[in-house]
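wait is this the right file?? whatever heres the structure
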């Protein structure tokens, strides 16, 4: 039973939700940014990919993931990454005339070969397989090799939660991060995601890289000529550095937690966990043997892992307890200077609300210009803003 205090807090939260933005990424979407309707971004990505020879259904799978990334406020993994996939298809290093296939399977598991098609095609195939298995066996665990960059991990975990299941997704990536006490970039940003359904369409969606930040954020600081905070990166000697250039040129990203003193070895452990589920389990390339970031001379052969779990196989009432848990956290009294306590998935939900208010996804002027340049280069109709 909610106390009077909790009720007042809930009213305050509702008011705050209407009036304010949180301090994180989605608050950066300034009023001056131009919005593009979601369907228009989807159309643009699909047409760009088709122009370089991508099959229509593969282009749609990719566009779904990239548009969802921007819609949820993860601008680093949306339109911003389109040239990466264009280069992969244009160079022929990623193919679009094949389909993923099952190498081996049991009631609850499958080993998949992505056959070097676009990552989202492999991801959708594998997660749909995991969902089918979870509905029959209670759990579906699929490990895929022969894949490519699959976009945001949360797209796949949410495919499962939309069907009342718990979903998890993982991928290995090009070596950019430096293990605790080392000096060489050896592991990727290796993201992991868990989506867990709560009541009435609410859900917990943890979707995170296992490095403190993405490389793009460090590049941005370098371009602006400003220092980076502690815990973001190391120089070529493995020493923590606040100079973005030394991190980009021969150094690497730090794992979640930062230095050994502040628990960075736990992020290192999580990154290894992702690699165990992905590269080691699937037999794909792993660790420092994965091709360098943005290299299009070598096939990526990434490893990925997709898990679906039917909560009905355990204690009844999972979504009710899930709702209680997220509510308990959201209703906490905020720390001094803060407005509200969030759970994973809330910042993204707020960004989606912002898009709805703006009639589309707001893009930074540089992103709009990137779209214009691409449309000229490929002969594709420009994105129409709202
Ligand atoms: N395919 C790839 O190679 C690759 C590699 C790295 C990252 N990614 C993707 O990039 C995206 C961004 O990753 P990221 O690590 O920069 O995300 P992030 O740091 O912005 O957010 C990570 C998680 O923290 C949650 N969160 C943020 N603020 C919070 C708060 N105040 N309270 C509670 N929870 C909060 C978010 O909801 C999210 O689940 C993800 O979608 C990830 O899958 C993909």
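ok assuming it is, sequence goes like this
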């Amino acid at each position: 039973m909610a106390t009077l205090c909790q009720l007042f807090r809930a009213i305050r939260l509702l008011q705050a939700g209407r009036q304010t933005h949180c301090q994180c990424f989605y608050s950066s979407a300034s009023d001056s940014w131009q919005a593009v309707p979601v369907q228009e971004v989807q159309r643009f990505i699909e047409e760009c990919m088709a122009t370089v020879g991508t099959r229509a259904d593969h282009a749609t799978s990719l566009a779904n993931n990239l548009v969802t990334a921007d819609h949820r406020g993860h601008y680093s993994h949306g339109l911003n990454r389109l040239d990466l996939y264009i280069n992969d298809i244009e160079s022929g290093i990623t193919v679009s005339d094949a389909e993923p296939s099952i190498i081996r399977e049991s009631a609850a598991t499958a080993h998949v070969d992505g056959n070097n098609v676009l990552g989202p095609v492999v991801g959708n195939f594998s997660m749909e397989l995991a969902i089918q298995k979870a509905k029959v066996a209670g759990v579906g665990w699929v490990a895929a090799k022969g894949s490519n960059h699959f976009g945001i991990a949360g797209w796949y975990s949410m495919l499962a939660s939309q069907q009342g299941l718990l979903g998890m997704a993982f991928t290995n990536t090009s070596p950019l991060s430096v293990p605790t006490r080392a000096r060489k970039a050896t592991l990727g940003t290796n993201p992991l995601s868990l989506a867990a359904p709560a009541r009435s369409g609410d859900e917990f969606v943890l979707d995170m890289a296992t490095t403190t930040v993405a490389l793009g954020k460090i590049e941005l600081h370098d371009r602006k000529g400003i220092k980076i905070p502690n815990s973001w990166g190391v120089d070529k000697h493995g020493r923590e550095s606040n100079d973005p250039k030394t991190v980009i040129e021969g150094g690497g990203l730090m794992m979640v937690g930062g230095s050994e003193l502040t628990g960075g070895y736990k992020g290192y452990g999580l990154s290894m966990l992702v690699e165990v589920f992905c590269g080691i389990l699937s037999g794909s390339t792993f660790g420092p043997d994965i091709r360098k970031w943005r290299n299009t001379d070598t096939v990526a052969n990434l490893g990925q892992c997709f898990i679906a779990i039917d909560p009905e196989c355990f204690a009844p009432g999972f979504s009710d307890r899930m709702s209680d848990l997220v509510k308990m956290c959201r209703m906490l009294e905020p720390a001094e200077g803060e407005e509200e306590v969030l759970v994973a998935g809330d910042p993204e939900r707020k960004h989606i609300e912002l898009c709805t208010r703006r009639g589309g996804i707001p893009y930074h002027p540089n992103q709009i210009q990137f779209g214009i340049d691409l449309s000229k280069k490929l002969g594709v109709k420009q994105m129409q803003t709202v």
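The domain at 4-93+359-378 is CATH 1.10.1530.10 (Hypothetical Oxidoreductase Yiak; Chain: A, domain 1). so i think its the right one actually
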